[in-house]
Amino acid sequence: MAGIKDTNEADLIEQVKAGQRRAFDRLVEPHAPRLLALARRMLASTSEAEEAVQNALASVWINRRRLDSGRPVGGYLTTVILNKCRDRLRRRKAASFLGFGQGLEEAVAPDDAPDPENSALDRQELARVKLEIERLPVRLREALVLVAIDGRSQREAAELLGVSEKTVETRVYRARNRLREKLEFS
């Protein structure tokens, strides 16, 4: 069964390289929810994540000749998404440094749980965890999001990030320790 999927993906890639827009849609559609979730976790903003995914897919379309029909497209798409997220995080950091964009934090959606007090506490804790993840250095955040949140193996994360498995393991370990320290002492 995997052979059929791989052949279909390889055929779609060749069609995309030839400029067929429908083939591109069929190629990226199965990956879109995962890519959006990854971007949302990296950027902690649904609207920024949607823009990052749109920009990434537009970039892939523009540079479609770089697609390799001999390799799965999922890893390539993930790498492009991570690069777009890095770009946005750099711009966000620069804007913050210069004092732009103050007060644009995304609101947390209310929980429909019956106990409003517990729900408020849960939302506060979730917001605190999200904030601390957002404050992690980008390299630590990428490894943590890919492995602990996105569910990828350390090997997959290492390939996507262009580092060794040991480096990913170390980054995830450091990210978890930093989060533990920040959340225990806050």
From TrEMBL:
SUPFAM superfamilies for the chain: Sigma2 domain of RNA polymerase sigma factors, Sigma3 and sigma4 domains of RNA polymerase sigma factors
Signal peptide limits: none
A GO term for molecular function: DNA binding
UniProt keyword terms in alphabetical order: DNA-binding, Sigma factor, Transcription, Transcription regulation
Pfam hit, one: Sigma70_r4_2
Highest taxon, organism lineage: Bacteria
Gene Ontology biological process terms in this record: DNA-templated transcription initiation
InterPro entries: RNA_pol_sigma-70-like, RNA_pol_sigma-70_dom, RNA_pol_sigma70_r2, RNA_pol_sigma70_r4_t2, RNA_pol_sigma_r2, RNA_pol_sigma_r3/r4-like, WH-like_DNA-bd_sf
Keyword Transmembrane: no
RNA polymerase sigma factor 70 region 4 type domain segment(s): 131-179
Residue ranges constituting the RNA polymerase sigma-70 region domain according to the UniProt record: 27-93
NCBIfam families (UniProt xref): sigma70-ECF (TIGR02937)
Family per record: Belongs to the sigma-70 factor family. ECF subfamily.
The name this protein goes by in its record: RNA polymerase sigma factor
Organism: Altericroceibacterium spongiae
